[in-house]
């Protein structure tokens, strides 16, 4: 590990000198074969402030300066950034013994969710949980999700009465998807459902959502360790309430719990996790499984509302599908997978909105000194203890060489002229294996991808068929990304996009 030079410079006037010394030191610190190193001008912190403020702009600037691989100092850590999409495949398929996905997740687990699992093995956990999100368990989740989406969406609307209702579009999408997702994974009040249990599901899931959202809004500060005293009190209160809501004792009374929950609780018991820690683990899982679907659905609906041609194409596709089934939409208690798989226009809209908005950091801990081959034949040395970061949001997702007008939403970008899915995209004249990576790729690709896609599609299906949904200010610009937030560049609630909706007469 390189030693970090701590220089006690306090004044602005010495910054240039410090930068010069650091550059010299940085130059001395690079071994042959390593990527260019940029330690910035602030000792130890390096580029932490710029990175935290707007990672995309910072990394674009670094790419212009150093090319598609470089190492930056960020808060005492050396992070090698790789931005060549042709070279991603090697990284995502490296074994855990060389590039590890979970070390950072464990760190976040402790820092954000106060969770310590002494005999925790990420690979054992993954082996147990993966099957619960596939095949017939996936089908059961998809069916339960449809019922629960109807419970919260249509139930709330019926209770609120006819006529138009107003709310923020992010709040609308996040609220309904998280509540339905929670009921699907963590179980419902009672089976068979009664009018009372149905109402209870809606009230309880709303409590879970509103409490979760308060924590969610403070997560960026919590991860950076920059909470004010008042924020710290809020976080404490909110976490305490969530731990109670998701305590194993409370969950024990719930009906129709998913295989996913049963398997997870069993795993926690097997490794001897006490009940209070189990509740914390269940809060972490609520965030990990539900934190992205609502935001993804928000952007999708927003792009549809801003692009009437796209909205008409999706509506047309859904109406055509329905005309081929024998049931009316209100008679449908599930959406068969075959139907969900026959929506190429909606698939293209989802891919395009994820291309424009999904900005995950794909990070790996470098476990051993490593030679990393690039697709163009170059090879770079990585040092044990450093971190490797891929940021597909910049390339391939926003790369003008791959996508013409990369900032523009084109609903049919992922459609061929014959209506099939378009999968051929090129850079440097070579076809790309990874042309968009909202779900990651390789060994650690999102386990919930299929469930998330079917949930978002079912949500959009129900919203478009049961509701009239309109922007209150149709001419307002699409809101700016808040890139200080990991993931989906979400804005603060006060900048949410106001919409009005009503149940279709
Ligand atoms: C729109 C929704 C979602 C998006 C965009 C998303 C995206 C991602 C990404 C980018 C990764 C990390 C890949 C990496 O670093 O290589 C990931 C991992 C993961 N996701 Fe998702 N995710 C979503 C929903 C879900 C849901 C609903 C579940 C579960 C029900 C889930 C379970 C997981 C798990 C377990 C991992 C870790 C995989 C591992 O340990 O190797 N995700 N997801």
What does this molecule look like?
It contains 19 helices and 13 strands. It has a single domain (84-503), classed as Cytochrome p450 (Orthogonal Bundle), CATH 1.10.630. The protein has helices at 15-29, 48-53, 55-66, 88-92, 102-113, 122-129, 135-160, 169-186, 195-224, 229-245, 248-252, 259-270, 275-290, 293-306, 308-324, 337-340, 344-357, 393-397, 449-466; strands at residues 37-38, 69-74, 77-82, 99-100, 165-168, 362-366, 370-373, 379-382, 387-390, 426-427, 430-431, 467-471, 498-503. The radius of gyration is 24 Å and the shape is globular. The relative contact order is 0.15. Bound molecules: protoporphyrin IX containing FE. Protoporphyrin IX containing FE (HEM) binds at residues 101, 126, 133, 288-289, 292-293, 296, 358, 360, 362, 438-440, 444-448, 451-452.
């Amino acid at each position: 590990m390189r030693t970090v030079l701590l220089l006690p410079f306090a004044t602005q006037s010495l910054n240039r000198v410090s930068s010069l010394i650091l550059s010299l030191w940085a130059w001395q610190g690079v071994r042959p074969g390593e990527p260019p190193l940029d330690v910035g001008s602030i000792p130890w912190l390096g580029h932490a402030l710029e990175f935290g403020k707007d990672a995309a702009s910072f990394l674009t600037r670094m790419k212009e300066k150093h090319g598609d691989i470089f190492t930056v100092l960020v808060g005492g850590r050396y992070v090698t950034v790789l931005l060549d999409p042709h070279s991603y495949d090697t990284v995502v398929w490296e074994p855990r013994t060389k590039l590890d996905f979970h070390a950072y997740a464990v760190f976040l687990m402790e820092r954000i969710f106060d969770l310590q699992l002494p005999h925790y093995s990420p690979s054992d956990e993954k082996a147990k949980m993966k099957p619960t999100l596939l095949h017939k368990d996936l089908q059961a989740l998809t069916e339960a999700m449809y019922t629960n989406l109807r419970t919260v969406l249509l139930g709330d609307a019926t209770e609120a009465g006819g006529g138009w209702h107003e709310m923020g579009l992010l709040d609308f999408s996040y609220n309904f998807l998280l509540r339905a997702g929670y009921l699907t994974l963590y179980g419902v009040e009672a089976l068979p459902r009664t009018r009372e249990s149905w109402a209870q599901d809606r009230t309880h899931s709303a409590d879970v959502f509103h409490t979760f959202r308060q924590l969610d809004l403070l997560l960026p500060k919590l991860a950076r360790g920059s909470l004010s005293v008042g924020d710290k009190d809020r976080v404490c209160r909110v976490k305490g309430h969530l731990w109670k809501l998701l305590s194993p004792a409370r969950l024990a009374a719930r009906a129709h719990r998913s295989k996913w929950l049963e398997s997870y609780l069993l795993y926690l018991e097997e490794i001897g996790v006490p009940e209070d820690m189990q509740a914390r683990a269940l809060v972490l899982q609520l965030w990990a499984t539900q934190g992205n679907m609502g935001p993804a659905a928000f952007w999708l609906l927003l792009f549809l509302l801003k692009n009437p041609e796209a909205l008409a194409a999706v509506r047309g596709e859904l109406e055509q599908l329905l005309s081929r089934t024998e049931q009316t939409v209100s008679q449908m208690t599930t959406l068969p997978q075959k139907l969900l798989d026959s929506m190429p226009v909606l698939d293209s809209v989802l891919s395009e909105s994820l291309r424009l908005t999904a900005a995950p950091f794909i990070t790996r801990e470098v476990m051993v000194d490593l030679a990393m081959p690039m697709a163009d034949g170059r090879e770079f040395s990585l040092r044990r203890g450093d971190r490797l970061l891929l940021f597909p949001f910049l390339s391939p997702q926003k790369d003008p060489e791959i996508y013409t007008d990369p900032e523009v939403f084109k609903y049919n970008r992922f459609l061929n002229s014959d209506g099939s899915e378009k999968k051929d995209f090129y850079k440097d004249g070579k076809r790309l294996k990874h042309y968009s990576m909202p779900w990651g790729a390789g060994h650690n690709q999102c386990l919930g991808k299929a469930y998330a896609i079917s949930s978002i599609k079912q949500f959009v299906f129900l919203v478009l068929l049961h509701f009239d949904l309109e922007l209150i200010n149709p001419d307002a610009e699409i809101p700016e990304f808040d890139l200080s937030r990991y993931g989906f560049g979400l804005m603060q609630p006060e900048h949410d996009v106001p919409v009005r909706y009503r149940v279709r007469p």
